[in-house]
Amino acid sequence: DYNCLDYHEKVVDGFYDIFDPSMESSRQGKMPSLEDLQTGIGDLGFEVIVINRAVDTALQEMEQVAQCILLDFPVANITLLVQRIADLVTDNLGGPVKDANAMLARWSETSTQLRTSLHTSLLPIGCIKLGLSRHRALLFKILADSVGIPCKLVKGSNYTGDEDDAVNIIKVDKER
Prior knowledge:
Layout lengths: L3 E2 L10 E4 L14 H6 L7 E4 L6 H16 L5 H15 L7 H19 L3 E3 L8 H15 L3 E5 L1 H4 L5 E5 L6
Parallel strand pairs: 3-4
Antiparallel strand pairs: 1-5, 2-3, 5-6
Helix pairs in contact: 2-3, 2-5, 3-5
C-alpha cells in the first residue's frame, strides 16, 4: 500500500504488486484484493506480479541457488554476498540494463506476450525472464530475505523520482 517493504517485512506467499500507470485508485485506498484480481478473466490490461512459491517452481529454484551462494560466503563478507545475489537477479531478469528505454520497450512486448500466453494478468515472478527495476528490486528483496540480508524495497516517485522505478536499500554493518 505504501510503496515500501521495510527491513523486517518479508515477502510472503500471497504478496502481489500491481502496476497500472492509469490506475490511481490504489492511492485512494481502493487497491483490489488478490481474490478480486484472480476472478478477472483474461488480460486485465495491466500487470500484477504475484508471489506463490507453491506453484512458482522457478522462484523456488532461485531461492535454492541463493541458499547455495550463502553457503559459499562467510557471514562477515556480506558485501560480496549482496553482489552475488544481485548477479543472480541480473542473470534471471535479462542481464545488465544498458539502455533503460530499450529495456522498457522490450518489457512492454514481453509483458503482453506473457499475459496473452498465460491468459491472465497475474504473473508469477519466476516466469519473468526480462525485468525492469521494479521486478529486479522485488526479486532481490525476496532472495535477500531468504538468505538473511537486511533489505528494504522502496518504489515509486516519492522514493525514486519515477513512478515505474524501485530500489533496494541494504544494511551493511549499521550503514546503508
